[in-house]
Amino acid sequence: MNLSQTQINWIKEKGRAFYVSFKMRLVPLLILVGLSLIHAKWIASKHQLFITIYAGVFSVALVGIVPFVKNLVAVPTIQLLRVIYYDRQYPKREYNSPKVDALIEKMDLKGKAQVYITKNPVITGPCCNVLTGKIFLPEKWIHPEQEPLATISHELGHIKAIKEFNIEIILGVIIVFEFTLLVTMRTIPLISKIAVFTFEMLLISYLARRNEYRADEIGAKYNGPEGLISLFEKMIHDNSFDDDSETHPSLRSRIKRLEKII
Ligand SMILES: [Zn+2]
């Protein structure tokens, strides 16, 4: 059977959308966490059956666990190390414009945030270091006739929301601790380890995605939602594929939230 390129692309797209889409990956992980909470004593008589079912769910959940570990832990760590490594070779310069300065001032972040333009090839999109307040934009994002104010407003939103994010991280640590206590009291050590790890991944992903929505909202509050909406629409158009990920909500759902603000 010979498939045309369009047919192959169609299969690939549907496959991505239905089989490995973020929400589909999420389902076995949630079942895995839920199963782990079944009381060990209750299952004692059907121990082998339970372990067999659990192993089955675990192998399916690997479809989700692998991208979670890759996108939440491995890729960001490698990316960070590469950014640091290339940083010396590709110097950055400060980006100052009256509009950007006015936005920083309006958001009450004067002295707390600074925008830089970089040629660092690892930085392919706008990003920020919330600890230092430094925002990095790749050279190609700068067009003199149209300033990337919407993007900058989102990154400034991250810096402005650092307190809320820190509080949520602390709450997250407490929730993980409580969950660990609960699950270790109820099941065998191996299952509790898998459950705690999966639960942590789900929670970090939830907090990361929540943090993106918040940065959008803060950016839109000070710079208006229109700029971000048209930026996201352009990104959907350029990439043709738009799905939720472990770290970011889909662009369409971000647009939906922003439209509520208008
Ligand atoms: Zn962001």
Task: Write up this protein.
The protein has 262 residues and is mainly alpha-helical. The protein has one domain (5-89, 161-261). The chain has helices at 5-18, 22-36, 40-43, 47-87, 98-106, 149-160, 162-186, 189-223, 226-239, 251-261, and strands at 93-94, 114-118, 127-129, 134-138. Strands 1-2-4-3 form a 4-stranded mixed sheet, covered by helices on one side. α5 packs parallel to α6. The longest helix is centred in the N-terminal third of the chain and has 41 residues, at 47-87. The chain is globular. The mean pLDDT is 89.
| Overall structural domain count | 1
Count of DSSP strands: 4
Order of helices and strands: HHHHEHEEEHHHHH
Q: What is the radius of gyration? A: 22 Å
Unique ligands: zinc ion
Q: Give the overall average pLDDT.
A: 89
Structural class: mainly alpha
> Roughly how much helix do the residues carry, as a percent range?
55-70%
User: How much of the polypeptide forms β-strand, as a percent range?
Assistant: 5-15%
Give me the number of helical elements. 10
What summary fits the major beta sheet?
4 strands, mixed
Biggest sheet strand order reads: 1-2-4-3
The low-confidence runs, each spanning 5 or more residues with pLDDT under 50, are none
What spatial form do the alpha-carbon principal axes imply? globular
Q: What is the terminal-to-terminal distance?
A: 51 Å
